Amino acid sequence: MKIGLIGTGNMGTILLEALITGGAVSPSDFIVTNRTKSKADRLKHKYRDITVESSADEVIRQSDIIFICVKPLDIISLTKEKAELFSREKCLVSITSPIQVPWLEEMVDASCARIIPSITNRAHAGVSLFTFGDSCKYHWKDKLWEMFSKVSVPFEIHEDIIRVSSDIVSCGPAFISFLTRSLIEAAATETKIDEGTATMLAENMLIGLGELLKQKHFTLPALQEKVCVKGGITGEGIAVMEQEKGEMFEKLFRATHKKFADEAFHIQNKFSS
């Protein structure tokens, strides 16, 4: 079975590397292309057995499953232009949240799905969010679920919570990285610790926290309660955080949902035109 990948930007590359290193797809089964071909050629240097094509047409023709990893507006243009190439026996997969699967189904005869990966999939961890089209054939559902089970925890998601789920799963690592970097910078500014040492300590703390949760020693509330001894130093820190955070996360979700709604509006207009 041949797996096509159109677009080798950040997420396209992470997706390919995760599926290869996780043993879900052999390099020789990947056929890829990118608007700037040199970016796809760089992957060829790393995984010699992948096939790099100069056009999306060739990738679609030769592939059974086609992952489209380009910008949301470009997905509509590409799918419309290449609609006749997405024949009934193929499976088209978008990896971006604003593109609704029914829109894809209206444009092509292929089975359609949306899978939103996370950068954590590169470490064969985290969640991947699934939405299947009504006409997606069962063997494609099973195949995609099997593939992503090797690099993530696949989770089928309803359209009405796709944005918030993506905020947590896909954007979450960037949000947590920002908070951790802020902790590191404040530590280096307010105390005698140097930034390199603080970074090492923080990174290994995150790794340890992940292992505690993975091994189910604690839930998040139980972990906080365990560390935050009443009247202790951690409690003083938590009190500051509770006071200072205000509506930060509420505002975060409002901002991401507004951006999502704006993008979806423009994409739907382009889809309808």
Automatic annotation (TrEMBL):
A matching Pfam family: F420_oxidored
Domain Pyrroline-5-carboxylate reductase dimerisation: 159-259
InterPro entries linked to this entry: 6-PGluconate_DH-like_C_sf (IPR008927), NAD(P)-bd_dom_sf (IPR036291), P5C_Rdtase_cat_N (IPR028939), P5CR-like_CS (IPR053790), P5CR_dimer (IPR029036), Pyrroline-COOH_reductase (IPR000304)
UniProt cross-references to SUPFAM superfamilies, sorted A to Z: 6-phosphogluconate dehydrogenase C-terminal domain-like, NAD(P)-binding Rossmann-fold domains
Domain of life: Bacteria
Family the entry assigns: Belongs to the pyrroline-5-carboxylate reductase family.
Protein name: Pyrroline-5-carboxylate reductase
Lineage per the UniProt record: Bacteria, Bacillati, Bacillota, Bacilli, Bacillales
